[in-house]
Amino acid sequence: MIIYLIMDAFYKNPFKKFVKKQNRPFQLVIEDEVETIFRGEVAGELKKGDLTGFQVHKFKFKGQKYLIAYQIQGTDIIFYMIGTHENFYRDLKLYIK
Fold it and tell me: Which pLDDT value is given to residue 38?
């Protein structure tokens, strides 16, 4: 188990907008997944190539797979994007360019 000593979390606009549009039960699930990342219980999958430095955490809600893209920079964690698997990596690459 990896334990991160994270002091601050930052949420980019695509992440905030996605969460804001969801219903309350799903927002609570997202909150739980973010806490899981904070506790370091699940180390996200490290990406290579264009997305070097990003980690992606995967989870399911009502049979649908969702991904959370984030980066750990020093003692901070930055949440970039959350969404379904379809076009997720393409959209993330477009956002960071």
Answer: 83
Torsion, CA 74, CA 54, CA 83, CA 92, rounded to 10: 120
SS (H, E, C) 57-92: EEEEECCEEEEEEEEEECCEEEEEEEEECCCHHHHH
C-alpha dihedral (44, 82, 33, 2), degrees to nearest 10: 20
| From the candidate CATH numbers 3.30.2310, 3.30.420, 3.30.70, 3.40.50, the one assigned to the domain spanning 11-96 | 3.30.2310
- Distance from C-alpha of 83 to C-alpha of 47, rounded to nearest angstrom: 17
| pLDDT score for 2 | 55
Domain boundaries, the chain: 11-96
pLDDT, averaged per 10 consecutive residues of the chain (97 residues), comes to 67 97 97 89 85 95 96 91 96 94
